[in-house]
């Protein structure tokens, strides 16, 4: 086949089969859909970051990890589901961005770092406005996730591992002691020192549920290193627990 | 015919004109049929007829997707990419991998390779020609295709990046490894010949 024949053949085929160039909007739509999907994935990544922060900061998992004598329990309760979701959505976002018109020009690692850097500030904002808490609670409607949440909560019923929870039945700021009733109805005496860690602006009240980090010193006696509310209000200012004045009466 | 004093229309201008008048497409076909046919044959071991069939599909696909062409890149890179994808797609249909053809390397190609790879000037040119062609046809497809684009098609890094849809940094790495593999094969063959 000569060169002339090739061009003739191509033009004849175009005419015979009524082949037309695809409209511009199809290409624009494809590009737009890819970018929107990438944006949605980054957004979901941000939500995953906010839930992870909720569990680590407001639920005390992070503090528990650094303060509890036994790390195994807390490691098992880490929010792996959200970590897997976060990485998966960011990888999908990265895949989408690299399939945009000019996305192939960037190395996958740079694109991935880019989407991570976008999702972290988004996650901080969502965490600050309480979305992490809401999404976490909504997720507990799913049976599979509810079981995981129960397991996570149950780590606070291991006094031998330095973690207890219960309802404040009485307390004295003067004596620096909290009386706590656990889910089995046992009455614990929780002692704390001046430098006990608690969230800012929070005072436990009688009848409230709390979590305590520390170590068991005797039967039904516990020395607290940190005292945390059971349900931390995510709208409260968050940050590293500072050394507060002793829990006021 | 081009008017005196007027330069030939660029490929990108021809794309715009083709969208208004289909017959202009024949000018683009004439410009690219030879280089693309040669490129297709360098990527595969199909016969002349098979390569022409692939080429026809390439031009049809390029025409269908003409409005998706991004004028920020070269038309030649865009149509080379379509050709490469079409070769892969044809071979995927047959559940086979494209195999490299036996290469005929001209003197200019050998000179470029020799200069770029710091090969000994003592190696006999005819022998080097044969050794390089042999090594090229036997090397990994991913290395072979960057070498073909760089030394046989004379594309620069940016064009190769657009054709293979990989970052320029990755192209540089692939090219470095490909040259190393080619140099080792050529040196090995020269030692064998000396023995």
UniProtKB/TrEMBL annotation, chain A:
It comes from the Bacteria. The chain crosses the membrane at residues 32-57, 77-97, 109-131. Keywords: Membrane, Transmembrane, Transmembrane helix. The keyword Transmembrane applies. This is Uncharacterized protein. It comes from Candidatus Uhrbacteria bacterium CG22_combo_CG10-13_8_21_14_all_47_17. The lineage of its organism: Bacteria, Candidatus Uhriibacteriota.
From TrEMBL, chain B:
Keywords: DNA-binding, Sigma factor, Transcription, Transcription regulation. The keyword Transcription applies. Signal peptide: none annotated. GO terms for biological process: DNA-templated transcription initiation. The keyword Transcription applies. Residues 28-97 form the RNA polymerase sigma-70 region domain. One of its GO terms (molecular function) is DNA binding. Residues 130-182 form the RNA polymerase sigma factor 70 region 4 type domain. It comes from the Bacteria. InterPro entries: RNA_pol_sigma-70-like (IPR039425), RNA_pol_sigma-70_dom (IPR014284), RNA_pol_sigma70_ECF_CS (IPR000838), RNA_pol_sigma70_r2 (IPR007627), RNA_pol_sigma70_r4_t2 (IPR013249), RNA_pol_sigma_r2 (IPR013325), RNA_pol_sigma_r3/r4-like (IPR013324), WH-like_DNA-bd_sf (IPR036388). Belongs to the sigma-70 factor family. ECF subfamily. PANTHER family: RNA POLYMERASE ECF-TYPE SIGMA FACTO, RNA POLYMERASE SIGMA FACTOR. This is RNA polymerase sigma factor. It comes from Candidatus Uhrbacteria bacterium CG22_combo_CG10-13_8_21_14_all_47_17.
